[in-house]
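Q: What residues go here?
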């Protein structure tokens, strides 16, 4: 596992969780493609070479075909793409309603063990092999070269910076899904994505000789957000808010009225349909995305729907909701704090304050709200439960760092890899870490 602020001098290997304990998975089928593998059971014991292995977690332990063991380790002896391991099923879109199970093929080693009575599968893989897969799992291989290279350098920087480390307790550098970086093995690899990894081999973004924690999201909605407005962390100069368009521009998104006007008027940002029509996005986006309007969206709830949503998410039961009032916005217009004002069952007035971007998105949608850059329109007639609240918003994701659709817009507009990266990660620079 990578340690914080340590700069590697040669290509490191990464530990990626591909079946996580939270998946509560009990079975997996594995097929070995190629012959350069070493298979060990419980560290020493060699088992006869099997092409197809079926692994089951039963009450009394792990079973490989019919042999009981604690751990199976499949070690790849070659970096050839034809030497790979097929695993089925693997979760994609974990925790979202578009979650599905897909088969994947991976390079590198696979270690299967149990964690709290569920399967735990870890892929140990060379960083560059991992990155060529991430580029086409995050965005499709049909994307322009500059976008794939920019995405690859951002992904390399993010994982090497190792600041987020969401699965540290499992000893992992990352999981295989959107929670970290989307990684679906070699399935969607093509010449372009392999080239993007090779062309940028070892290259990262640095700031003051420290590798940048280069975060990214699907669409900023027109302006990126300061990192410290989204996460509880210090402000990073290279993760500061930027207008996602060609020239710098005056705008005001600080209050409801100016933000609403900006939502309607702003059409010149790189992630807007002016640079790339939403109907053409399908071709460029990765596999399991929910189809949606990324740049501008809206969602509407009547009073009862909102009451049950808030009850389900927070345990607070309102009788009626009178108003949703934004009390603070970030630089991109993202709502940083919001008051839910209503009346409880005992007829007392109550205000529920939501204080973070994450909570905002968690509470205001059955799954997760597309972004926290929204304005609220209510047709409150004040006749109890009949008013509707419509959230009109911008962007998809946290909006910090590189905007993937904006970067695609820039690449289609002819901008080069470095120009894209330095637009989003201002005051950073590129550096090669290893050959
Ligand atoms: Zn993760
Ligand atoms: Zn954008």
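A:
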């Amino acid at each position: 596992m990578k340690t914080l602020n340590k700069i590697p001098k040669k290509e490191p290997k990464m530990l990626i969780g591909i079946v996580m304990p939270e998946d509560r998975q009990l079975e997996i089928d594995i097929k070995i493609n190629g012959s350069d593998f070493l298979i060990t059971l419980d560290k020493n014991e060699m088992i006869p070479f099997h092409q197809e292995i079926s692994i089951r977690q039963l009450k009394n332990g792990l079973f490989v075909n019919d042999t009981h063991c604690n751990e199976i380790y499949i070690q790849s002896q070659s970096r050839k793409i034809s030497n790979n391991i097929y695993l089925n099923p693997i979760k994609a879109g974990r925790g979202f309603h578009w979650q599905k199970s897909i088969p994947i093929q991976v390079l590198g080693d696979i270690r299967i063990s149990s964690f709290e009575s569920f399967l735990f599968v870890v892929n140990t893989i060379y960083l560059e092999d991992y990155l060529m897969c991430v580029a086409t799992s995050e965005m499709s291989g049909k994307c322009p070269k500059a976008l794939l290279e920019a995405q690859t350098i951002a992904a390399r920087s993010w994982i090497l910076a190792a600041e987020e480390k969401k699965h540290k307790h499992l000893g992992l550098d990352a999981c295989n899904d959107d929670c970290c970086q989307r990684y679906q093995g070699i399935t969607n690899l093509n010449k372009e994505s392999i080239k993007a990894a090779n062309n940028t081999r070892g290259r990262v973004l640095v700031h003051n000789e420290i590798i940048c924690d280069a975060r990214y999201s699907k669409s900023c909605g027109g302006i990126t957000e300061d990192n410290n407005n989204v996460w509880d962390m210090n402000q990073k100069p290279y993760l500061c808010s930027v207008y996602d368009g060609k020239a710098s521009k005056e705008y005001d998104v600080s209050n409801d009225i100016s933000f609403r006007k900006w939502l309607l008027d702003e059409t010149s940002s790189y992630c807007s349909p002016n640079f790339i029509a939403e109907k053409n996005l399908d071709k460029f986006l990765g596999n399991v995305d929910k189809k949606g309007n990324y740049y501008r969206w809206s969602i509407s709830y009547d009073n009862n729907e909102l009451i049950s949503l808030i009850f389900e998410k927070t345990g607070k039961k309102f009788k009626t909701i009178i108003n949703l009032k934004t009390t603070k916005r970030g630089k991109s217009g993202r709502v940083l704090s919001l008051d839910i004002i209503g009346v409880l069952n005992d007829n007392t007035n109550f205000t529920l304050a939501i204080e973070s971007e994450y909570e905002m998105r968690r509470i205001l949608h059955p799954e997760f709200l597309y972004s926290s850059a929204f304005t609220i329109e209510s047709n409150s007639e004040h006749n109890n439960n009949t008013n509707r609240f419509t959230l009109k918003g911008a962007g998809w994701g946290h909006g910090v760092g590189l905007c993937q659709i904006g970067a695609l817009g820039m690449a289609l507009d002819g901008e080069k890899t470095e120009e894209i990266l330095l637009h989003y990660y201002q005051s950073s620079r590129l550096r090669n870490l290893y050959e």
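A: Context that may help when evaluating the design: The chain is about 20% helix and 30% strand. Residues 166-167, 174-175, 179-180 surround zinc ion (ligand 1) (CB under 6 Å).
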